[in-house]
Structures are given as structure tokens and as C-alpha cells.
Amino acid sequence: MADVITLQGLTKRFGQQTVLNGVDLDLQSGEILGLIGPSGAGKSTVIKTTLGMEFADSGSAKVYGAEMPNRVLLGQIGYMAQSDALYTTLTGRENLEFFAVMKGLPKDTLGAEIDRVAQVVDLTGDLGKRVSGYSGGMMRRLSLAIALLHSPRLLVLDEPTVGIDPALRIRIWEELRRAVQAGSSVLITTHVMDEAEKCDRVALLLGGKVMAFDAPAKLEADYNVDTIEEVFLKAEGEL
Amino acid sequence: MRRIIELMKRIAKELVRDPRTLALVFVAPVLVMWLMSVVFSVNSTTHVDVATVGVQSSLRTQLNDVKHVSTHRYATTHSAKAALKSGKVDAIVKERDNRFDITYANTDSTKTSVTKMAFQSSMTSTTLKQLSEQVTKLAMANATLQAKMQAQAAAQQGAAGSTSASATPTKKTATKAVKVHNHYVYGDSNTNYFDKIMPIMMAFFVFLFVFLVSGMALLKERSTGTLDRVLATPVRRSEIVLGYLGTYGILALLQTIVIVITTVWLLNVEIVGSLVNVVLVNVLVSFVALAAGIFLSTLAASEFQMMQFIPIVIVPQIFLSGLIPLDSLPKWLDYVSYIFPLRYAADAQNAIIFNGDGLGSIWLDLVILVIFVVVLAALNVVGLKRYRKV
């Protein structure tokens, strides 16, 4: 199976601070990869370098075999940021329309695609309302819907379920599984340890390097613990 | 192209749904300009009260005759000084032994200038009058002399010819009363300071509000994260800049039309040149403001930091674009003003509004403004690289 994402020896410095110190990571087609690590470990930097928003100081980031940054390739990546990143004076539908056109969706499928993603996140009835009137959960759902537009082959989600109620979180994960079954791949960063359990593979970013990188069950066996949370704590303790 | 239009539509929707910003862009300039026109037209005439001590009556009358000057006779210097201190008079003119001493209160430099000029012109008039009286006397004396000589000559020649034309000794060299008619190339006798600064104010308001509104809009996109999300799509950075230029350009066009209509019809300001040219200059100014606003917003981390640019970017421009007459500024400041776009816009607007100049004379100013836009827009496209490397 071809790699969807390949990160090799990624190094990134911000001023005096070395955030990434030779990160090696790969995302296989049809899997959900969870990236975990303490705050400030560089998870967002990994995402930004993968998307071409940042230049790495050394090393390479490739998506579908193409070196990033690559503007055209962005049309095939769905991105959901940590912040809601919505135009609050616009309605839900207008937000979706805007980003759909930015992504390059053809005009004739626009309406149908918007309806589809709205249905996935259960916002169909609220599309006509201005986002300023949305609740926090509704904004998160809209944010996810925007990422799902045009069923991208690669979904990159930066802490997508922060502050989300459990029911909604389950729904989001159901959608992610469905997308993977339909052929997409997912890179997700999270602080929520039980979410990490649901990933196909987990990468633990610590001290600028990927300290552990395997299926959750295998990691737990390697570290001789029962949960990913303990893997995390044990690995941090060892550093 | 499709993306640019979509960007323009979205930015337009955001603007239209923000009533306060619209009020700032359309209503505020009208209000301020109306206020300024009222304030400046009230203060256009300065009246001066002058105390005279021992001044000859002819000069005193002349001084009193000067418009906006009234003289008050005081017997002693002491009483005049008391009046000056209490503010009853603005200046004292004392004459003694053909020497004039003038004391000015000088709390209002305009009044001092009016007094000086009034005194000068009165002196000149008085002197001229005396001079013409002397000339008349001399002419009469000369005529009398001529008559006497002719009479003697006639007497020597005999009786006849007493009808010889004798210059009438009472021939008066009449000093014809001189009349001055004032003609105004621009405006009329009521034209005041507001009319002078109005072209600069128009360009200034366009610049100020477009600069702030566009800078804030982009800052908001950065802080809410929507800029990142947009840059995570295949959109080009140049398309984002063009989208902003497009919508805000239309906004500035509408704003200029509103301001021009206000000044011409509501405030009765005369514009000699073509209104289309006035609008054109302002639209160009808005493009510069837009590009500058977006560019500087990349150097600001918050809305408050954006406001901190106002003393650097906005305030110098308004002073160096002609609000204070440029020929009264030190020369080096005049050169400095050429780095600011408002200087060129003000020059062009002044030429159009006061002189009726057409594109033929102002084309250089317009070209320079266009260069400003192109350079700043290019800087913006490069500046956006901070948020996406490609």
C-alpha cells in the first residue's frame, strides 16, 4: 500500500527552540493515525509542515509521494483546525459554499455535496442560521463538515473533539470510520487518551522525536501497561 | 477567477452584515465634514479693537475706516494699557513727535496680523493723501504763476488778447476716487479655510477608513483561524489579495460618491474640474489604503497593535498633505511628505477642484499612486507567505 504521508527526519526550529528534532512518521492508506504528546511537543507543527504551511528546516514531508508544500494537492486534503475558523456573520450554508468553491468543487455538484456533509454532521436544519447563533458543538460540527467536503482522500484533524460532548464525539468517530472504509486516510491529533485507543496506530511525540509508533494494543504490551494513558506517562517519565 | 469572485462575494457579505462598519465608512465622514464646514465658516472674520493715544485725526479716521477695525481714543497711555490688559482692546497705537509705538496683546496672532496690515495701509493712505494735497497745492501755485507770467507778457504786448487762454488758476487736479473690484477665480468672497482643506479631507477620510477597516478584517481572519483554513485550500495568495482589493475598491467607490455628493450639494463646495476625476483619485487612494492596511496588519498581532499604526501612518499624512500650507513648512518636511501617498492625492485633488485640471496635468500623481498600489499589493502576496509557504 502506498504511503499517504511520509515524514522523514523532519526538523524545525523556532528561534532558539528546536521543536521537531528528526521526526519520522508515515500514514498508510486506509488507516487512522493518532498523534499524541504533551502540549508544546510539536503536534501542530507536524500538521503544519505536512500541509505545507511551514517549511521544515531539514528533512522532507511528502503527501501522496509529492513533496510539500504543494498548493494544488491541498484540494485533496481536508483540514480541520483546533479553532473553529468560521465566518460568524455568514450562515452555515454560506460558509460551506465559500469553502467548497475555494476547494474547487464543480458548480453542479455544489448543492448536493453541501447537503450531504450537512446531513453527516446533523446540521441540515441549521444551515440557514448565522454561525454567530450556533452553539459551540454546532460550530465544531460545521467545522468538520467543511473538512469533509468533496470526500477528501486525506483528512487532517487537529484536536477535533476538544470540548465536545460524548455523544457528538462518538458520532464524529463513526463518520471517520465510514470515511476510512470509503477509502480515506486520517491523521488526527488528540489529548483524549481513549480516542487514541480507537486509532489504528498511535505515534507518541516526545522531545521532538517520535518515541513510540505502533498499534495501541502493541504499545500497551511493549510498555507493560493497560492503557495508552499509561504508555504516555511511562514514556514521559523515562525521558 | 471563480475563486476571486467568491472571495469578493464573501467579503462583501461580511461588510454588509456589519452595520457599524458601514456607518463608520459612510456616515462618519459626512458628519465630520459637515461639522468642520460649520466650525470654519463661523471663524472667518476677525475683528480688532485698537486704542489710539495722541494719533493725528487723519490717520485715526483712516484706521477706523479699515474693515473689521474699530479705533477707540484714549487720553493717556496709562488708561490705554489698562484697556489692553482687561482685553477691551487688542492693540495700542501711540503717536508722539512723529514716532509711532504699537503694542499688541498678541494672544491671537491673526489679530496681530490684521492690526499690522491695517496700520500699514492706513499710514500709506494718509501719506498718499498728504502727498496729493501737496501736489494739488503745487499745481495751483504753478497755475497762478503761469497766469501771472502770461498777464505780464500780455501787458507788455498791449491791450488785446486778454482772451488768451489763461490757465484757470482754480484748475483742480481732481483725485479721482479709486474703486477696487474683486474677482475670484475659485469660489467667492465667502470661500474660507474649509473650502481649502476639503479636497485633502476627502482623500484623507477615504484613506483612514479603508486602511482601518481592511487591516482589521484581515487581522480577524488571522485570529479566528479562517485565513489558515482558506490557505489550506488550493487558492493562490494573489487571489486572496485581489479578492480584498476588489470588494474594498467597490466600497471606496461608493464612499467617494457619497462624500462628493455631500460636499457639492449639501455643503455647497465648488468643484471646478470633473467630478469623475475626483472620484477616480479617491478610488486610487482607497486601493493604496487597502494594500497598506493589509500589509501593516501582517505586522500587527492584535487589533490594538493595528491602532498603534495610526500615529505613524495616518497622522503625519494629514499634516504633510497640505492641511497646513506646505510653503510655510520647513523645506525638509516638504521633501518628506513625498513618501506619503496622500501628498500626491492631495496635489491631484487640489488641481482638479481648484484649477479644473484634467487628466493631462495630474497623470503623474495618478501613476505614482498606482505604483504605490502595485508595490504594496506585491508585498502583501509575499507577506502571506508567512502563513503558507507556497
From TrEMBL, chain A:
InterPro entries: AAA+_ATPase, ABC_transporter-like_ATP-bd, ABC_transporter-like_CS, P-loop_NTPase. Residues 5-232 form the ABC transporter domain. One of its GO terms (molecular function) is ATP binding. Coiled coil: none annotated. The keyword Phosphoprotein does not apply. The keyword ATP-binding applies. It comes from the Bacteria. SUPFAM superfamilies: P-loop containing nucleoside triphosphate hydrolases. Keywords: ATP-binding, Nucleotide-binding. Gene3D superfamilies: P-loop containing nucleotide triphosphate hydrolases. Pfam families: ABC_tran. This is ABC-type multidrug transport system, ATPase component.
From TrEMBL, chain B:
The chain crosses the membrane at residues 21-42, 197-219, 240-267, 279-302, 309-326, 362-384. Pfam families: ABC2_membrane_3. Residues 160-387 form the ABC transmembrane type-2 domain. GO terms for cellular component: plasma membrane. The keyword Cell membrane applies. One of its GO terms (molecular function) is ABC-type transporter activity. Coiled coil: none annotated. The keyword Cell membrane applies. Belongs to the ABC-2 integral membrane protein family. This is ABC-type multidrug transport system, permease component. It comes from Lacticaseibacillus pantheris DSM 15945 = JCM 12539 = NBRC 106106.
